[in-house]
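Posting this for the archive.
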Amino acid sequence: DLRIGGCNAPGENACFDVDYQFDFTASSSVVSTARSSTFVVNVGPASEMRIVRHHVASFPGFVFPTQPEIWVYDDGGNVVESYEELVTVSLEPALDCLLCTACPCTSTPEWFGETEVRAVRGRVSFAGLGIDTAGGQYRLRFAGPGGLSVTSFYFDLAVGPGETLRIVSQDADTTGGVDFSVAVEAIDRGGNRVPAQGGAVSAVVSRGAEGAGVLFGTTTRPFVSGVGTFSA
């Protein structure tokens, strides 16, 4: 059951389609070595995907600073350079969703980037991938025709630093001199609330083209778990 393979590992040139020879040596020193005729080793059909460069996650809303790269191999461990199929990447649910330890899942992850890339000489390089929704135990799944697939390790995506404010709730039309309520939250680039946001939020009122209006009451409120609340 002799086999030859593994002759073009990542970072090396392919070494198939060249002349090989077998050398046979007997355990007895009396018997001389025999050499076979030359033969060609061809790459087999695609049978496996491997992640040769894993992604590195940052914060929600940011592109992964390191993007994933996939290579396609035959049974002998050779890169199948004739493979030029479309390979897709999908974001699998968090592990607690799959195991139903936190059912139902509180949110559906949102993400962005080039999720379908055509292989070039058996190699697939993704670009611009990132996730908006903070959470834990995500993983990426790469798949191509013929049932080929591979999944990444599980990873967490923590809430990023606060970048902007968003209105959570506010009263409808009000009457002059009557208290009203509004709540404002600090969110990161991916739109996730930032519970650790410090400091305070201040409010002013404007009248469109007529300029600033007059606002009574406490116009500055501290952030509490990422939310500043102005109560009636």
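The longest strand covers residues 135-143. The chain is about 0% helix and 30% strand.
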